[in-house]
Amino acid sequence: MNVAPRLTGVVGDAAVPTLLELDHVSISYPTPDGNLTAVEDVSFKIAAGERLVLLGPSGCGKSTLLRAVGGFLKPTAGEIRMDGRRIAAPGPDRMTVFQEFDQLLPWRTVLGNVRYALERGKSLPRREAEAIARRWLERVGLKNFVDAFPHTLSGGMKQRVAIARAFALEPALLLMDEPFAALDALTRRQMQDELLKLCEETGSTALFVTHGIDEAIRVGTRILALTPHPGRLAATFDVPPETRARGSSGFGELERRIQTTVFSTPEIGHV
Amino acid sequence: MSEIATPKFVRAPTLRRALEGTPWRRFVILAGFALAWELYARWLDNALLLPTLGATLSALWSAILSGELPSRALTSLRVLITGYALGVAVAAVLTTLAALSRWGNEALGLLTSMFNPLPAIALLPIALLWFGVGTPSLIFVIVHSVLWPVALACYGGFLAVPPTLQMAGRNLGLSGGRFVAEILVPAAFPQILSGLRIGWAFAWRTLIAAELVFGVSARSGGIGWFIYTSRAQLETASVFAGLLTVILIGLLVEGVIFRSLTRITVQRWGQVQP
Ligand SMILES: Nc1ncnc2c1ncn2[C@@H]1O[C@H](COP(=O)(O)OP(=O)(O)O)[C@@H](O)[C@H]1O
Ligand SMILES: [Mg+2]
C-alpha cells in the first residue's frame, strides 16, 4: 500500500507492457462561477490484463476521469496515452459501460444494439456481426430476449446488454462507470460475480469506477482510492486473487483497511 | 452469465380487446356534432348562411362525382407535397449543420427566431413579385410555413438526446452526418414527428389561404379556389363541401399516416406511451 501524495501507479509486473498511462492529468469544468477543478494531477498506469478500480465517494471525479480516458472530454493539463499515443477522440478500442440505463439505442432490439455496435465499431458485415452478437447475448444470459426492445427490459437486463455490447467489440480497454450502482443489492452482487467471470475468461483489461469498497475488491486486481474536491489519488491497494472471494478473511481485512485508511480520514469524508 | 427466463402474458377480456385501439369515443363525439349541425341548420332554415349537413354531403357527393373536387384536391395535394418535402429537406440540412457546428447552431437560432413568427401568407406578395402568379409562389410560401417549425422541433429534439446515448454513439467512432442520421435523428424522433405534424398542418392551412387569395387560373386552381368560386356563385353548400374536404384530407393524413408512423416507430421503441 502506498499513501498520498502518490503520482504514479505501480505496474505489477515489469514484463507486462503498459496499456494506458495518465500523466499528471487535471480536468476542470467551466461553470458560471469560474472553473471547477474536478480532477487534479492524477497519474497512474494500467498494464495489459489488469483490472484497475478507481474508488472514491460521489463527486470525487471518477466519471470525469473515465470520460477523459474514453476521449469524451479533454484534460485541462497533462496527457492520457494509450499504447503511447495521446487519446484524441472516443473509439471502439475503449468501449464504455455507463451507469445510466439509457445507453442502449431504444429503436433497436437487444440483438440490433449489439449487432449495430459491431457493424459500426468493427466494420463487420451484418451476418458476421449478428453471429457474434448472438454469442455474446447468450453468454450474458439474454438468449430469450434478443428480439426485445430495451424499454421492455429490467435495469439489470439493460446493463447485461451494455456489457455484452462492450465485450463483443473486444476492446483493448474496457471502461465501466459504476455500471451496477442503480441496481438492487441482490442483482448487483450477481452481476459483479458474472462480470468477474467474464473478465477472467477473456483476460480483459479494465478500468472500473465505483464508490463501493466491496465492489472494488470483488472486481479489481488493483484499487486506486481518490479523495474528493478536487479528485486526487490517495492510496493504492493490490488485491491478491485469494482475497477476491466474498466472505474470505482477506476480503474483510482489506475492506477494513481501505475503510480506515481512506474513508475515515476527516479531510476525505464519507460516501 | 445465468439464463433469464421469458415472462408469461395474460390476455384481456374479448370485448375490451376488440375496442382497444379503436377511436370509438371519437365516432360518438362526431355523431353528436353532426346531429347538432343538422338540427340547427333546419331550425335556421337559411341555406345561404348555413346549409344542412345533408345538403352539404349531397353537394360534396356531386362535386366528387363530377370529378371537379377530386381534381382540385389532387392539384392542391401535389403542390402541398412538393412544398412540404422541400421544406422538410431544407430543415434537415439546416438542423444537421446546427448539430455539427457552432456557426450552424447560431445561424439556425437566428433564422428560426426571425422567420418562425412571420406568417407564411405575409410572404405571398413577395412571392408573387419574385415568382409570378403560379405554383412556384405557392411552393415558396409552403416551404416557409414548414421549414421553421420542423427545424425548431428537430433541433429541440437533438438537444434533448440524453448525453449517455450520445456518448454511446460516439464510442463506436460515429461522427458527422452519420452520427446525426443514426443516433440523433432516431433518438429525437418523437419531437421530429410532432414537428412534421405541425409542419403538415401549417402547410395545409397556408396553401388553402394562398389559393383563396389568388386562384391561379380557374383551370389549375386547387381546393381553395373551389371554395372561393363556390362562394362567389352563392353555392354555400359547395363552400362547406370544400371545407369538409380540407378537414377530411387533414384527418386522413393525421389518422392514417402520422398515426401509423407513430405506432411503428416511437411507440414500438417505448419513446412515447401508446
Ligand atoms: N458537466 C459538468 N459541468 C460542471 N461540473 C461538473 C460536470 N460534470 C461533473 N462536474 C463536477 O465535477 C465533480 C466530479 O464529478 P464526477 O466526475 O461526476 O464525480 P463522480 O463520478 O466521482 O461522482 C463534481 O463536483 C461535479 O459536480
Ligand atoms: Mg460518476
From TrEMBL, chain A:
<dbReference type="Pfam" id="PF00005">
    <property type="entry name" value="ABC_tran"/>
</dbReference>
<dbReference type="InterPro" id="IPR003439">
    <property type="entry name" value="ABC_transporter-like_ATP-bd"/>
</dbReference>
<comment type="similarity">
    <text>Belongs to the ABC transporter superfamily.</text>
</comment>
<dbReference type="InterPro" id="IPR017871">
    <property type="entry name" value="ABC_transporter-like_CS"/>
</dbReference>
<dbReference type="InterPro" id="IPR050166">
    <property type="entry name" value="ABC_transporter_ATP-bind"/>
</dbReference>
<dbReference type="InterPro" id="IPR003593">
    <property type="entry name" value="AAA+_ATPase"/>
</dbReference>
<dbReference type="GO" id="GO:0005524">
    <property type="term" value="F:ATP binding"/>
</dbReference>
<dbReference type="InterPro" id="IPR027417">
    <property type="entry name" value="P-loop_NTPase"/>
</dbReference>
<protein>
    <submittedName>
        <fullName>ABC transporter ATP-binding protein</fullName>
    </submittedName>
</protein>
<feature type="domain" description="ABC transporter">
    <location>
        <begin position="20"/>
        <end position="253"/>
    </location>
</feature>
<comment type="function">
    <text>Involved in beta-(1--&gt;2)glucan export. Transmembrane domains (TMD) form a pore in the inner membrane and the ATP-binding domain (NBD) is responsible for energy generation.</text>
</comment>
<keyword id="KW-0067">ATP-binding</keyword>
<keyword id="KW-0813">Transport</keyword>
<keyword id="KW-0547">Nucleotide-binding</keyword>
TrEMBL record, chain B:
<feature type="domain" description="ABC transmembrane type-1">
    <location>
        <begin position="73"/>
        <end position="257"/>
    </location>
</feature>
<dbReference type="InterPro" id="IPR000515">
    <property type="entry name" value="MetI-like"/>
</dbReference>
<feature type="transmembrane region" description="Helical">
    <location>
        <begin position="239"/>
        <end position="258"/>
    </location>
</feature>
<keyword id="KW-0472">Membrane</keyword>
<comment type="similarity">
    <text>Belongs to the binding-protein-dependent transport system permease family.</text>
</comment>
<feature type="transmembrane region" description="Helical">
    <location>
        <begin position="138"/>
        <end position="159"/>
    </location>
</feature>
<feature type="transmembrane region" description="Helical">
    <location>
        <begin position="179"/>
        <end position="200"/>
    </location>
</feature>
<feature type="transmembrane region" description="Helical">
    <location>
        <begin position="207"/>
        <end position="227"/>
    </location>
</feature>
<feature type="transmembrane region" description="Helical">
    <location>
        <begin position="79"/>
        <end position="101"/>
    </location>
</feature>
<feature type="transmembrane region" description="Helical">
    <location>
        <begin position="47"/>
        <end position="67"/>
    </location>
</feature>
<protein>
    <submittedName>
        <fullName>ABC transporter permease</fullName>
    </submittedName>
</protein>
<dbReference type="Pfam" id="PF00528">
    <property type="entry name" value="BPD_transp_1"/>
</dbReference>
<keyword id="KW-1003">Cell membrane</keyword>
<keyword id="KW-0812">Transmembrane</keyword>
<keyword id="KW-0813">Transport</keyword>
<keyword id="KW-1133">Transmembrane helix</keyword>
<feature type="transmembrane region" description="Helical">
    <location>
        <begin position="107"/>
        <end position="131"/>
    </location>
</feature>
<dbReference type="InterPro" id="IPR035906">
    <property type="entry name" value="MetI-like_sf"/>
</dbReference>
